């Protein structure tokens, strides 16, 4: 903010000096003074163009940031909606155990299926065709 105040003060000083020179030019100033006055005006014009470019860039950046803010706001609303409407059939995360055991990241149903898979019969008895045909129907 101090930089802007310094720039403002610089422009004010330049403009006041140009006004003073313009007032004095009515009294038939030499050609050299008039050239200096023209150079000062051109220098101020260049500085103004640079400031306008900077302001335009800042406006574009501000617009992009506003769009990004809207996007994040939409994401936040979406996440909040998901949090508020979390389905009941999905298992909830277990609270961390106070012991120093590492927490299992697998859901509870995965553990049950592992236990069930271990109980399957590993051997199957084969029967012959004669035994199969002798079974009453």
UniProtKB/TrEMBL annotation:
Q: Which Pfam families match?
A: SKA1
Start and end residues of each stretch annotated as Disordered: 90-112
Which Gene Ontology terms cover its molecular function? microtubule binding
Q: Which domain of life is it from?
A: Eukaryota
Q: Name a GO CC annotation attached to this entry.
A: mitotic spindle
Q: Which residues form a coiled coil?
A: 48-85
Q: Spell out the Gene3D superfamilies in the cross-references.
A: 6.10.250.1370
Q: Name one GO biological process term.
A: regulation of microtubule polymerization or depolymerization
* InterPro entries per UniProt: SKA1 (IPR009829)
Which of UniProt's keywords are assigned here? Answer: Coiled coil
Q: What is this protein called?
A: Spindle and kinetochore associated complex subunit 1
């Amino acid at each position: 903010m101090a930089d802007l105040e310094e720039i403002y003060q610089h422009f004010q000083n330049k403009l006041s000096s140009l006004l003073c020179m313009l007032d004095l030019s009515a009294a038939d100033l030499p050609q050299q003074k008039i050239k200096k006055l023209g150079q000062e005006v051109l220098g101020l014009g260049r500085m103004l163009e640079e400031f306008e470019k900077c302001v335009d860039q800042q406006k574009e950046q501000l617009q992009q940031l506003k769009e990004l803010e809207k996007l994040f706001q939409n994401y936040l609303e979406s996440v909040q909606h998901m949090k508020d409407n979390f389905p009941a059939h999905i298992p909830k995360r277990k609270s961390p155990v106070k012991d120093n055991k590492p927490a299992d990241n697998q859901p509870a149903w995965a553990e049950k299926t592992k236990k069930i898979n271990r109980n399957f019969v590993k051997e199957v008895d084969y029967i012959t065709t004669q035994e199969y045909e002798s079974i009453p129907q």
